[in-house]
Write a structure and sequence with these properties.
The complex is a heterodimer of chains A (about 110) and B (about 300). Chain A is mainly α and about 110 residues long. Helices cover about 65% and strands about 0% of the residues of chain A. Chain A is built from six helices and no strands. In chain A, helix 2 (about 30-45) packs across helix 4 (about 60-75). Chain B has helices spanning about 10-15, 25-30, 45-60, 65-80, 100-110, 115-135, 140-155, 160-175, 180-195, 200-220, 225-240, 240-260, 265-280, 285-305. Chain B is globular. The chains are: A mainly alpha (about 110), B mainly alpha (about 300).
Chain lengths: ~110, ~300
Amino acid sequence: MGARDDVTDELRKDFRERLELFYAQLQLAPPYDSVEKAVGVLVVRLKAMPAEDRRALAADPSRRWAIYREAFIASGLNRKHRGIIAGLIRSGRAAGLPREYGAFLDTYPAPQVE
Amino acid sequence: MEPVSRTGPWQRHILAGVLCVTASSLVSCGHAEPGAHTPVAPPATLWKVHTQAAQRAYVVRDYPEAERQYRKALKEAERLKIAAPTDPSSEGVADDPALPTSLNNLANFYVAVARYDEAEPLLQRALTLTRANLGPGHPYVAVTLQNLASLREAQGEFAEAQALLEEALRIDEKALGASHQKVGHDLNRLAEVAAAQQKIAEAEALFYQGLAIREENLGPDHPDVAVSLMSLAQFYAEQDQNAKAESFYRRALAIREKKLGPNDPVLADTLRYYAVFLRKTSRNEYARQLELRADTIDTRVSLDVPTP
C-alpha cells in the first residue's frame, strides 16, 4: 500500500507544482479553489486505477500530461481566466512555458472572429 | 487591460483591482487616470485596516486571508452604513464611499481568483448603489461598469465587455468631456476588447484616438502615453505588422526608462513584452539581454534591494 500511495502522492504533488508554475508564468493569481478541485479529481482518477497502471502512468510523461489535462478540464480550470489566458496566448506571453504545457493551453478558445 | 499597470496585459489589471484601499484607488481598479473625478478617501477606520490587511495578504498570495479581510471590510462598511455620496453635482463627495469600494474590491478579488459567480452580484450591487446615490451619469458609475467589463473579459465574454465599456465611455465623455484623459483611457480599454474580438479596424482607430487624447493632455513622454504605445505595439505585433510594432515598443520603452525608476516592475514588464517580440522576429540575443534586465529588476523588487 505504501508504494501505491507514494505514486499517487508523487503525481498529486507534481500536478500541483505544474499548476503553480502555469499560473505563475502567466502572472495570474491561481483560481485556488478550482486548483484544489483539480487535484482532487486527479487523485480520484488515480485511485480508481490498478496500481500497476498507476506506476506505468507515473513513468510515462505523455500519459502523465494526458491525465493532468483531463483533471484540468474536468475541474473546470480551463474555464477560469479563459478570456485573459486566450489573450496571453495571442500576445505570445504564454510562449515561455515548457512545451508540455500545451496540454493546458490548447484548452483555451481561439480568438472570436467578427 | 492596459499594460502599464499590469504584470501582463490583463493580469495586472486584475491585480490592481484587488489592491484598492480607498475610494480614490477604486478608480485605479477601473483604470481611471489621474485627475478623473474621484470620491474622496474614507477616513482611517477599521474598514481601512481590513482593506489594507487584505491587500497585504493578496500580495503574499495568501488568498484565503485576503478574502477574509475583504469580507470583514465589507461587513464593516455595511455596519457603518456608509454609502456613496449623495450629491451627484459634486465632483468630490460629501460622504464616505466605503461600501461601494468594498463591493468593488471584493468583486475584483473574486475576478482575480476566477470566482466569477461571486463577483457578479457584488458588482451589480455596487452599480445599483452608485447609480442611485450619484446618478447614472457619474464617472464613479463608469468605474464600476469597467470593473464589470473586466469580469466579462476574464470570462471571455468580449461582446458584453465591449457594451459595458461603451456605456462607461459615454458616461465619461458626457461628464468629463470628450478630450478628458480618462476618456483616453476608456478608448484604450475599448480598443483592446475590440482587438480581442479581431475587430481590427475598429480597434486600431480606437487605439489611435486614445493615444491622441493622452498625448494632448499629458504630453508625448508621459507614462500613460506609454500605455497606449504598448497597446499599439502589441496590437501590431499580433497583426504581424512588425515595423510598426517595433516603433511603438521602442517609444514605450524609452518613455518608461526615462520616467519610471530603474527598478519599476512596469519597466520589467515592458522589457519582457519587447523580448517576446524580439524572439518572434528572431533576435534572440537581444531578447535574452532584455529578459536578464527584467529578471534583475524583479529580483531587486522582490528583495526590496535599493537601486545601485
